[in-house]
Amino acid sequence: MVAVGIIGASGFTGAELLRLAASHPDFEVVMATGDSQAGTRAADLYPGLSAAYPDLVFEPFDADRARGLDLVFLGLPHEASMAMAPELVGHVGCVVDLSAAYRLKDASHYPTYYGFDHDQPGLLADAVYGLPELHRSELKGAQLVATPGCYVTTATLALRPLVEAGLIETTGVIVDAASGVTGAGRKADLAFSFTTVDENMIAYGLLSHRHTPEMEQEIGAQLLFTPHLVPMNRGILATCYAKPAAGVDVSTESLAALLRERWADEPFMVVTDGSPSTKATLGSNVVQVTARYDDRTNTIVAIGALDNLAKGASGGAVQAANVALGLDESAGLSTVGVAP
Amino acid sequence: MVAVGIIGASGFTGAELLRLAASHPDFEVVMATGDSQAGTRAADLYPGLSAAYPDLVFEPFDADRARGLDLVFLGLPHEASMAMAPELVGHVGCVVDLSAAYRLKDASHYPTYYGFDHDQPGLLADAVYGLPELHRSELKGAQLVATPGCYVTTATLALRPLVEAGLIETTGVIVDAASGVTGAGRKADLAFSFTTVDENMIAYGLLSHRHTPEMEQEIGAQLLFTPHLVPMNRGILATCYAKPAAGVDVSTESLAALLRERWADEPFMVVTDGSPSTKATLGSNVVQVTARYDDRTNTIVAIGALDNLAKGASGGAVQAANVALGLDESAGLSTVGVAP
Amino acid sequence: MVAVGIIGASGFTGAELLRLAASHPDFEVVMATGDSQAGTRAADLYPGLSAAYPDLVFEPFDADRARGLDLVFLGLPHEASMAMAPELVGHVGCVVDLSAAYRLKDASHYPTYYGFDHDQPGLLADAVYGLPELHRSELKGAQLVATPGCYVTTATLALRPLVEAGLIETTGVIVDAASGVTGAGRKADLAFSFTTVDENMIAYGLLSHRHTPEMEQEIGAQLLFTPHLVPMNRGILATCYAKPAAGVDVSTESLAALLRERWADEPFMVVTDGSPSTKATLGSNVVQVTARYDDRTNTIVAIGALDNLAKGASGGAVQAANVALGLDESAGLSTVGVAP
Amino acid sequence: MVAVGIIGASGFTGAELLRLAASHPDFEVVMATGDSQAGTRAADLYPGLSAAYPDLVFEPFDADRARGLDLVFLGLPHEASMAMAPELVGHVGCVVDLSAAYRLKDASHYPTYYGFDHDQPGLLADAVYGLPELHRSELKGAQLVATPGCYVTTATLALRPLVEAGLIETTGVIVDAASGVTGAGRKADLAFSFTTVDENMIAYGLLSHRHTPEMEQEIGAQLLFTPHLVPMNRGILATCYAKPAAGVDVSTESLAALLRERWADEPFMVVTDGSPSTKATLGSNVVQVTARYDDRTNTIVAIGALDNLAKGASGGAVQAANVALGLDESAGLSTVGVAP
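Structure tokens for the assembled complex are given below, as produced in the milestone run.
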């Protein structure tokens, strides 16, 4: 068994890790810390954990206890994660960080988008971006994995094959996306209260959302990203617009063929001729993608959908951890969501 | 009092007209027809109408009874509306058609987008597009008013001022929008069942939605329109992307100033520096709009929000009718929605 | 015009009062205070108020400015309301208190259910319970009106006629009810976050909810009340169970006849042979009720539905104020909700 | 591997069986029939099945192919199930019927509650009621299992221990419950459209719901059952009221102790001192129960919560099948739901 620690386990991504770990054949959660919730029973915070974790109590972080574990997930604020990683890397089998602390290869984005300077350039360079569909070989044996942002995974898996194939202009790309509320994390905030969110749709982070440079890094194109909040618990849908590259012939059929070929061997990728929906991915690790070419306006539309807490965060983290540790990549991860 | 008939009153737009008519100081509904629901009590179909219309029974259409009315709303399928309008125009004070039958000045779009040929070119030419914010003077005394499509109203009121001012390129515009489920009308269809829609977001009508040529007509630009279905009852949010016209200087501030000036005297337009939300318009006739300029990608983002059944359909129809008949334009229309 | 002040206007009941006042032909809001929100624009807190109240800013309470107003609504915490009423009663035309401070005629319930001793026994005795359907004649000219609790209005209007007619045992009554989330007020609390409430139903306040003694007072029976939270923004449904009184013959028909007769002249009461639904009342001041008799188990089921913020709080308060001030009882109040 | 057939696989319970089978270590689905959907790809009807069942096509029923299977689930209308069971029992390892055809030991309830006469008295007598928590020993090796109704499982697991212990009066019990919309099955019906259900709560089946005699059979008490529809996809919450039996001393503590003892060894039962919520069970096979005693009104309140499609239907069916076939009772069944 893989001895697993979850640092910052009391947030939504932590709870989702506990959910996935409960059915992972190789994982044994031996430590779950939650500083602000230290002393709280996990089942009191998340009643859905009552049957699987009746006795689990969040504990304060203790570096001595963490060292020597096979796998440690970090579910901490970005800056806290940046600071904690060096304490753990090299002392545990693998560190999988769910924050953005080690995602951006260009450290200059941190002050701009996250408000702090990055003081771990060496670790930042060594960290592997935890998207197996793009970085599988680097992930094998990795000591520090940076789990992608939820919006980034969605848009990247829809658009990256088009960039790789040289099909689209790499400027002027539009990513218009919407997320369920869990994307905001566990917060007592009126902006995420039922009364605010229910029967509501609103754009936020206009022009400046933090996932922008991360998307540009992984997709390989300059883009404008507009996120929206919609009244769902989970789920991201990204609708992306790009112009065909000069001199390139595209069609809806050729785009579909490209996506199918690129993702043919991926256990969690579904290329559809229909319209991806968040509900088709609810609770599973699946990503659905499609693409269309509109010759009337000479525009490509590529769409991706996933569950932001599953593949978009904790499920993606487990998948990357599985690869890093040499386990079955699909272990503990479902391909069927809870729908209807 | 204005003697009002509603033909096709049993659908969602009909029910919304009944709701609005109940608090309109000048309207008296004297006829409400619903062919498939003839004989059904309105309150049995819509229990919320029980107190205001305890005795109203939908009746079959009778042209003789319709003639002579001051105002007739048509809530019929497109082709049925096209056929009925000539029977009424000239025989009633004003006909307000909520279908698309008389919206598109270029009749050649009808076979392409609606599947039938338009056989009333004269009436089509005479019909006034029922958006008072753009066509107020033509609406005064109009005999046939074509109420705009819900998506069209949303995008047009956000984008049209930019086109009028020559600020944006009139090709390559993207309108990415989402609607609540009432937009689909009253249908026993699994696609609109709670189980399908709840916790779901999905794009539909990819590349080919019927509101495309109508938006192009009213906005004055070539555009690609992608509608989505989100788990709300009412509400449309349209997020629109355009490039500044060559040689034009724009900024978020100048865009805001333009929108404020253009809509300054409109009773239902709210220009906000915040982010328009559908909930801010729920149940009211209000449209919220904003715009931003992103110099990093040289892109303008314009956003509009409204209630698709209110301003987006029946509320807009009442507003246009008020103008056509010379009544107070705001009569019967609320400026405060039902939120929280 | 009636000069209206709203003290504690920044909460949900305050926002609903502002919504209703905007279409009230006789009300002019001249003061809206919100201590914690003093200095905040109403439209920034509630974007739906932007069009109707573009310039309204919540101000701190000022007794001098309040005195002399025709009508003052109090939307304050219970104990604060208890303390403020004596400062205003006699100095303004009418005080309508939306808290529970002046609802319970037996002051001994206050320490038990609200955690404070009532120190205004005189005002408590003079206050009129603001349910026009039961206390209309007392309300005329009242100086202090105590607006009923939302659950209480729902259950009382379904059950009170049965008690008045001597039809049911006045012990052992069960009131099983559920509410939308606005009933909890405007609170940044994880318990009312979208993620907690969406796709969830839960009972709360088991055995001990504060509305219990108030229901017993107005219904005239000893009862057990169980409230639930359901994923809706607005709406209360109360399903009530009682045994027929000894020796009384009841039937579903006789119960329906009794309800219809009792509520025949009420502008907002709908007695239905169908099943009341919260949606039929959404945004309106309507209450729907029904009753059934099950001879198999010798049990009466009575059901009521309303909008908790409208008739259940601010709409009921406006209705009571209309009666108190001698205005048209229905002024400013809708009988058609926003549905579909 | 257990060769599994699902007859009537295209409905919601069929889709849920497919979901559960995909992660069941011993199940291999070799046949999935759906008469009205024969020829349809499962993934086209339920896009969430795309990754796990990319090639599964619903086929017409073929008795020859069904015979010899280890396990057959029937997801058919009640009367169709009654007729098909004799064709299969004895020819397959075990038949698990999700309809009500073999649940009611008193056949006279069928004409009253289901509108047909039961013509298989022998099979009805032999069928085992598929609730392992009450009938585990009978289930071992059973050839025909009748999966309980979703409401029945909820109320029974909350109330049955109290009856067994002689704690409550076995008349006058009230079961007031609410369900998410999937309980109604896959139907193109306006009553279950998003627009009808969203922001709505309504009672239905007043006095006469079909689960009444089934609850009375399994709980062992005469009761009145009122179901409600609430705007959730999945989930049932049952709030039950009973009087203590004459001469019996009860307290909230003794009730909790009783429930804990009774369900101590059950893998899916959670007895809580908190308030059971549907969300705590979403997507898992868990049932949460609690009980309280109110001495003021001398009433016991017992509450149960579960996922109606999981433990309330297909999950319960898999659990019962596991017992019948001698597999690990928990195989393929989750104890952690998808929440947040």
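Chain B has two domains: 2-148+311-325, 150-308. The first strand of chain B starts at residue 2 and ends at 7. Further analysis is deferred to the final report.
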